[in-house]
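Let us practice reading a record.
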Amino acid sequence: MIRRSVIFDVGRVLFDWDLRYLFAKLIAEKDELEWFVANVVTPGWHFQHDAGRPLAEMVPELKAEFPDHAPLIDAYAARFNETIPGPMPGSLELVERLDAAGVPLFAITNFGHEFWEAFRPTQPVFDRFRDIIVSGTEKLMKPDPAIYALAIERFGIDPAGALFIDDVAANVAGAESAGIAGHRFVDAATLERDLIARAYLP
């Protein structure tokens, strides 16, 4: 059993993410962009893929509902990596420092299976992680207690010695209810101070 470990979320902790990063390239008018992400390709609709629903079901269904926006809906499926513009400032450096300090690293991410398959190979930082649980692959989403139970078992960790980092309060609370300490991510500087205080970093 691994006595001490750090478990990261991915979106908005390690990497920035927003549907607008893609669609702002395709929709020039700001009000139209906001209408589109509030009514067509919405975060709530997107989260169905995070939960395990295949794009082959989701995309044709939405195009049938909004036929005038079919090219934009196709762009969501084909160009999803463009919704992730780059790392959150300072976060990947903390991953590197934890890895260099010998801290076992894991991740639990709400991420669609197909999109993860396209995104993961582009980011060598994930080579530093021993295992990553992806919601769309497991068909379990944070903060479902089952995803934390799966992580404890599959990672082979002692929850009492683990720290889970996520930007969503409910996800942090879910980890804490499973006996894992939680950190609500705001920025890398605040996380760094907490990692030092908890003796994960010197």
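A brief commentary: The chain has two domains: 5-16+86-197, 19-83.
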